């Protein structure tokens, strides 16, 4: 991890009508840093992730990515989206395309890269997430854990500078959670900058550089995992931890 910030949120505010879902949120994520975001349902974690790749516009404050303010539209927005990979709870793979086609689609269509190069990279990514031998299958033929690993490979195919994960294991059967967390852990060890919303406290303890606790739209605490779990400072964090640990 370097000292240089890749993602910087400065006094970010976001409203949905009267609902103030992000309240003066300040967050700086260094290159190579892994930040795990935890907090109760409805606290604004997904909105925070979506704001970072501008799936949600914000009402005030600034977000910069790699030294530039987030673009509002056009080609620079498309470039931002390719530089910030996102993995959701639902895998959103194209059902009528093979696993390999799913992974190749972004680089071919968005980035207009050469098919042979894209194919090679896609295959090596599928190997990396342990799905290389399933490349010609269709999503429905794979388990949920395998589909989520394909979704990770698909995001990586765009060669992102950062990866956002929004509860990537919440929709999985329990026995498949581990295989997805293993892929995320190795990605973290390889130095990928990651923002991960998850309820998997084991992952937070072992893979995160920092845990950020959100409640009611506010970023309440931010600390290394050992410190956060041993000594949460706010009552809200203590209360949250007492319910999930
Ligand atoms: P979390 O991911 O922490 O559960 P969210 O970011 O999804 O929280 O939501 C924060 C709050 O914003 C919640 O009260 C939610 O109901 C509300 N919200 C989220 N998306 C929308 C939307 N598109 N329109 C209106 N309200 C929304
Ligand atoms: Mg959410």
TrEMBL record:
SUPFAM superfamilies, per database record: P-loop containing nucleoside triphosphate hydrolases (SSF52540)
Reaction catalysed by this enzyme: a polar amino acid(out) + ATP + H2O = a polar amino acid(in) + ADP + phosphate + H(+)
Top EC category: translocase
Signal sequence bounds: none
Topology class, membrane: Peripheral membrane protein
One GO location term (cellular component): plasma membrane
Domain of life according to the entry: Bacteria
Domain ABC transporter: start-end pairs: 7-241
Keyword Methyltransferase: no
Any one GO molecular function term: ATP binding
EC number per UniProt: 7.4.2.1
InterPro entries linked: AAA+_ATPase, ABC_ATPase_HisP-typ, ABC_transporter-like_ATP-bd, ABC_transporter-like_CS, MetN_ABC_transporter-like, P-loop_NTPase
Entry keywords, A to Z: Amino-acid transport, ATP-binding, Cell membrane, Membrane, Nucleotide-binding, Transport
Subcellular location: Cell membrane
Primary location: membrane
Family statement: Belongs to the ABC transporter superfamily.
Descriptive protein name: ABC-type polar-amino-acid transporter
Species, as recorded: Paractinoplanes atraurantiacus
